[in-house]
Amino acid sequence: MDQSHNDQDRFAALVGLDWADQQHAGALRTAADGALEAFKLLQTADAIEQWAAALRRRFSGRPVAICLEQSKGALVYALLKYDFIVLFPVNPKQLARFREAMVSSGAKGDPEDAMLLLELLCKHRQQLRAWQPDDATTRLIGQLAEDRRNLVDHGTRLSNALKSRLKQYFPLALEVLGELDKELACQFLLRWPTFEELGSAEPAEIAAFYRTWHCYHPRLIEERLEKIRQAKPLVNDPAVIESGGRLVQCLARQLLDLLGPLAQYDRRLTELMQRHPDAAVFESFPGAGDVMAPRLLAAFGTDRERFKSAADMQSLSGTALVTRASGKTRAVLRRWACNKFLLQTFHEFAQHSMGRSAWAKTYYDQARRKGKRHHAAVRALAFKWIRILHRCWQNRTLYNEALYFQQLQRKGSRLVVLVAREHSP
């Protein structure tokens, strides 16, 4: 095995573990004599507990290194409670590339992948990094923030499906409801899912409904009532109308069921952020707000050694470009191998920041003028923000827009001139 004397002293054994839903394939090599063993491990609490206890007894509690293909999930969560186990998670694409290099036939199997993971750990450990999990509060913030975003995405899909179906048979609803992912819109469609049912309602009843669901603008209510009075039905086919009404009620009920849990997620995230020592740092950034600040905090975590430079986070999140050069050919390409949720987090934060930061909006506009498409320009802005976020996170200092602008002035940045030009009276 190609490993340093220090690692020989540190780890009693090295393990490659290829995880699966029900049964994991493993390969173990002892540090003392290099003996190799293959094993299977069931994904049950009892099986993992017995296996870990046997490892502890066998190696007298000395550290055991485990290389596996994920940094979260059932197996990782199960192994976290054992203090003698040190995890070395690898990116699935990293293992796939290693497999391609080592297995020319392209053959793949769980035991073979376990051996490849073990070989990565034995011979290329200097390229791997032991995983140091964040504290429980930070992990909870990160998981809740990601789950919340997935629920929002699900709500968007429901809202789009609702809008698409209403266009087919009841477009009037789109004119008198505004945003469909609100409680008023869902309750409206549950009560009046078709044009005919809405047309049979009294104006006073409809006006009272709007007020019940917190729409207190008399002029707006009157405008919507007038649209309802003057509207004509789009279709009169009973099959289209009945099927549309049933589906719209089903979608509206699902969308309504999401609103309460989303509010509970927001309240819980607010509670957790109020007691997190790094919360103020990320809340100080323009456009972070109650939604983005928890996601930014979870992205960086609490281990200041994890991202020693901003470039580490820029690469992991996919905001850094990739240069491919061969001979006289050179290409700069978007990085596709990245943590997609991290990329989404920084992309969305960069978009939010443009409404609150003068230099951020100017930087985006400048990128657009240079020919970048919208998303490429936003990624470029996110790339720049990560450097600032990283510095504030490392130093535990709040972001100060005025101070940052002064630094741009001292460096003679062209952004200063552009911001002054765009905001001059």
Q: Shape from CA axes?
A: globular
Overall number of domains: 3
SSE class: alpha/beta
Tell me the distance between the termini: 69 Å
Average of pLDDT = 89
Stretches where pLDDT is under 50 for at least 5 consecutive residues are: 1-6
Instruction: Give the radius of gyration.
Output: 28 Å
State the helicity in percent bands.
55-70%
Strand order in space, largest sheet: 3-2-1-4-5
Biggest sheet record: 5 strands, mixed
- Number of DSSP helical runs: 20
- What letter string, H or E per element, gives the SSE order? HEEEHEHEHHHHHHHHHHHHEEHHHHH
Residues in β-strands, percent: 5-15%
Total beta-strand segments: 7
Quaternary structure of the protein: single chain
What does this 3D model show about the protein?
With 425 residues, the protein is an alpha/beta fold. It folds into three domains: 5-131, Nucleotidyltransferase, domain 5, CATH 3.30.420; 139-272, Orthogonal Bundle (Helix Hairpins), CATH 1.10.287; 283-422, no CATH class. It is 60% helix and 10% strand. The protein has 20 helices and seven strands. It has helices spanning 5-10, 45-58, 74-79, 92-102, 110-123, 136-169, 172-177, 183-191, 195-199, 203-212, 218-230, 238-274, 279-283, 289-300, 310-317, 340-353, 358-369, 374-395, 401-410, 414-422; strands at 13-18, 23-30, 36-42, 64-68, 85-89, 322-326, 329-333. The protein has a five-stranded mixed β-sheet. Strands 6-7 form a two-stranded antiparallel ribbon. It starts with a helix and ends with a helix. The model is unreliable at 1-6 (pLDDT under 50).
